[in-house]
Amino acid sequence: MSYLAALQKYDGAHADTAHRSASIAMLADSDRDEIGDLLRALKAMSGNLDLSSRTEDVDVIAVIDGIVFQTIILALNAAVEIKQLIGESVRTVEEGRVLAGQAGRTMDGVTQQNAALVEQAAAAADALQQQAASLADAVSIFKLHAVPGVAAPARRLSLT
Question: What is the Cα–Cα distance from 60 to 56, expressed in whole angstroms?
Fold first, then answer.
């Protein structure tokens, strides 16, 4: 049981991580668009600046685009890895469920076998008691007389 609880907790943590990774990817994509819009607006306002500053603006935009692209790739890789971990966890839980079902069926079979053996033992004990009573009745017709020098027979046991 504790194993299944641990697996459930493990799966929950991976689901949270997957959700966070997807959120990060969406934010990074949104941030890239916003940064690009801001830089284009700044570029439009600085139309009277010299050509060297325009080249720097383009370089800055290219660097930011590269950083945003790498961030998105990292988030996607994390999401893929998390998806694989969740899939493995689901398979592990399913295997555990199957094993638990098999164990339950095995225990049911063992319990039924034990019950049958107890019934057989009780029936055998009852049959032996009846046979012992029949033998006691059969030998009760014999009378023993005391013989000098011979010890008396042991006291008779009651079978009922």
Answer: 6
